[in-house]
Amino acid sequence: MAINKQEHAQWSSSFGFVLAAVGSAVGLGNIWKFPYMVGESGGSAFVIAYLFCIALVGFPILVAEWLIGRRGQKNPINTLADVAASEGKSRNWGIIGASGILGGFLILSFYSVIGGWALNYITKVGTGSFAGQDSDSAAATFDAMLASAGTLTIWHTVFMTLTAIIVGIGVTGGIEKTAKVLMPLLGLILFVIVGYNVVNGGFGEAVAYLFTPDLRKLTADVMLAALGHAFFTLTIGMGIMIAYGSYLGREVNLLKTARTVVILDTVIALAAGLAIFPIIFSNGLDPASGPGLIFVSLPIAFGSMGAGTIIGTLFFLLITFAALTSSISLLEPTVEFLEERTPMSRTVSTIVASTVIWLLGVAALLSFNLWSEFTIMGNGIFDALDKITSKFILPLTGLAAIIFLAWQMDQRSIQQELGLSNGAWKVWQVVAKFIAPIAVIVVFVTSLMG
Predict the structure, then answer these.
(1) What distances in angstroms separate CA 31 from CA 94, 118, 283, one per listed residue?
(2) CA distance 299 to 293
(3) Fewer beta carbons within 10 angstroms: which end of the chain, N or C?
(4) Total Cβ atoms within 10 A of residue 261
(5) Confidence category of residue 346, pLDDT binned at 50, 70, 90
(6) How far apart are the first and last CA of the chain?
(7) How far apart are CA 447 and CA 450, in angstroms?
(8) Quick one: which H or E segment has residue 120?
(9) How far apart are CA 71 and CA 82, in angstroms?
(10) Concatenated DSSP letters of 198-266
């Protein structure tokens, strides 16, 4: 039975909510993963596919999760159960919320480890450690960090502590205020790095690489990669947006707000490409170097370029800010659940949740060194957590949420709440009932076959 100890929190303003939602979406997926996926998946072909998919899959699922969250005004589990009951459906739909909370919980455990890498690299780049390094020595530096359980644990602990402090303060005082500070700073740092690239070369080549259409490279694999990334970049299927939606007032226009969040998220991802690829091209590095693009290839460039120490330090500050704005959103659904369903205060709920996540994160980071021989179905703990969430929990949770909204809830009330004309409503229903679910199923089945 739920324990309602206080009135449910609310965002103090629509602007604060937008920044918090953008902060959740803008994370390592934008600054770290998006550029290397562009490099591996055909450059502009991937960008075109990504823009197409985020509009037809990410946007409707984002709206669905916010709408469900606002209707329920509770943690994701209770929200889904209560909304289902109000629609005359089984309260077992609350399983969707449980799945989302679990997904965010597991993701944060290894996400915090990567956030720790970014923190560590601020000090490495800032002290000139990469000056004069080549690809072999830069790779050796990264490998040495992974091999040190102590180093990884220290930085993972620092990152997780920062996340817990922000979430523990509360929705408006912690999450919203942090977003209002970090998101403008993130944008400013991106602007400075892109501006540097405009002046110092490689920018025209990067623009052509990202935006000159080359449909010959638009293969089925590229489409599937773009579809999967569009789905995950908005942090849907993790209980986050249901939780964030539960703090929304009725005055917020969901469609307009979702459009703003999607546009800002996409702009920042593209700006990250314009921050990274000019440096890659002007230094003769490989844009298709995969996950090591950020932690191996770029430090080589920072070590050899003029003002490289300053630009490199700013870049890894950018990575850290992006990771932090997402990590607080990953922790929030679990804290909200504990706060509402147990006698624990928000502070205690945050300490309990973050401690358990921290412990799981320690297990994940040990898979790079002391526990490297231990595997789960052929994967180390870190990779196993990544695959369980990305291949199973997230797509199935997102799929269930859009099916619930489009097929189980009263459609007339949804049309009224979204404020859609009859013509726009017909388009919405085609996307929500058919296009988005089918696309997620395709990604899910393909990922299982991969």
Answers:
(1) 33, 11, 19
(2) 9
(3) N
(4) 26
(5) very high
(6) 41
(7) 5
(8) helix 94-126
(9) 9
(10) HHHS-HHHHHHHHHS--GGG--HHHHHHHHHHHHHHTT-SSSHHHHHHTT--TTS-HHHHHHHHHHHHH
253: alpha, beta or left? (left if phi > 0; alpha if psi -120 to 50)? beta
Residue type, 441: I
| Assigned token pair, 211 | 């935006």
| Tokens coding 81 | 């159960």
Please say whether the beta carbons of 53 and 227 come within 8 A: yes
Tell me how many degrees the CA angle 120-121-127 measures, rounded to the nearest 5: 105
Helix, strand, coil percent values for the chain (each to nearest 5): 80, 0, 20
State the angle between helix axes of 381-388 and 94-126 in degrees (0 to 180), rounded to the nearest 10: 130
pLDDT over 70 at 4, yes or no: no
Give the model's pLDDT for residue 7: 61
Place of tokens 């707000």: 257
CA 202 vs CA 12, 31, 99, 130, 181: distances in Å: 43, 19, 44, 21, 31
Q: CB of 205 within 8 A of CB of 281?
A: yes
Global pTM?
0.90
Task: Answer yes or no: are the C-beta atoms of 87 and 68 closer than 8 Å.
Answer: no
Look at residue 3 in the predicted model and tell me its pLDDT: 45
Written as six digits, the tokens of 96 are 């969707």
Pairwise CA distance, residues 363 & 369, whole Å: 10
> Whose CA is closest to 354, among 168, 129, 122, 84?
168
**3-class state of residue 376 by DSSP:** strand
Nearest Cα to Cα of residue 283 among 301, 296, 265: 301
Q: DSSP for 49-61?
A: HHHHHIIIIIHHH
pLDDT digits (tens, 9 = 90+) for 350-390: 999 999 999 999 999 999 999 999 999 889 999 999 888 88
Q: What sign for the dihedral angle of Cα 29, 30, 36, 40?
A: positive
Beta carbons of 389 and 106 less than 8 angstroms apart: yes
Q: How many CA atoms lie less than 13 Å away from 445 in the CB half-sphere? A: 6
CA angle 251–85–58, rounded 5-degree value? 55
Q: Report residue 379: phi and psi, to 5°.
A: -120, 145
